[in-house]
Amino acid sequence: MNTSTARYQMVNQQIRTWDVTDEGILDLLARLPRDDFAPAAYRHLAYADCAVPLGHGELMMVPSVEGRLLQALALDAQDVVLEVGTGSGYLSACLAALASRVVTVDIHDDFVSAARGRFARHAIDNVAASVMDACRELPDGRFDAIAVTGSLATLDQRYIDALRPGGRLFIVTGEHPVMEAQLVVRGNDDDWRATSLFETSLRRLQNAPEPSGFSF
Known about the structure:
Blueprint: H1 3-15, H2 23-31, E1 53-55, E2 58-59, H3 63-73, E3 80-84, H4 90-98, E4 101-106, H5 109-121, E5 127-131, E6 143-152, H6 157-161, E7 163-175, E8 178-186, E9 192-200
Parallel strand pairs: 3-4, 3-6, 4-5, 6-7
Antiparallel strand pairs: 1-2, 7-8, 8-9
Helix pairs in contact: 1-2, 1-3
């Protein structure tokens, strides 16, 4: 696989055509070798328009969704970001390139260990990765942006509470096969507003609560 050509095609045929217009993000995705973050058995799928298996029934996001997520969060070089669901570490690396610091958590300790190794190989030193069940607890502190990489049945107020004033939350809610990606922006106090971005479908966060009578 010619990875340079594959990255070019991913950016221009998948991501750019799905309303990702931020040239800084497009340039980042064209530079960062996504195949270095994919499991060895699936590296040939790293630039395909599909969700790559990671193990434990988990998947890498489709590249176009990653691009929309990064664009929606509108990160600043001074931002501190929380990522829920480290996965392969690829999105963590993208966030780290755009922000000051990234705190990323995952329920699977082998994901966290593998991601730390990938960060080290790529000299990414502004990501702190740890094992945590985000459906039960969140890291201390408040954040300028939060990216939740698995879906929830409904919006979880804890993520809004973990935002600083003006903070942005990317989250996907609803029921398979049609879910809603949303951008939530917190105001100065307890007010916030949510904007629908697009329809998609992500696997549930492990241990995510389900409303009574809801099946998945």
